[in-house]
Amino acid sequence: MIITIKDLFKMAGILAVAFCAVIVCAMFLNFNLDLLALKQRADFPVYEPVYKIMEMNGKVICGVSGGCLFLTSIVLLCFYIGHYIDTHKKELGILKALGYSRLQMAVGFSAFGGCVLAGTGLGYGASWLFLMPRFYEMQNKDGLLPEIRMHFHPWLFLALVAAPTAFFALLAIFYSYHKLGVPALSLLRGTSGTKAKKAKKVSCLPFLQELSRSNVRQRKSLVFFITFAVFCFSSMVQMSASMEALASAMMAAMIFCIGIFLAVVTLFLATTSVVRANGKTITMMKVFGYGARDCARAVLGGYRPWAYLGFALGTVYQYGLLKVMVEFVFQDMEGMPAYGFDFPAMAATLAAFVVLYETIMLAYARKMEKAPLKEIMLE
Question: What whole-number percentage of the chain has pLDDT above 70?
Answer without folding.
Answer: 87
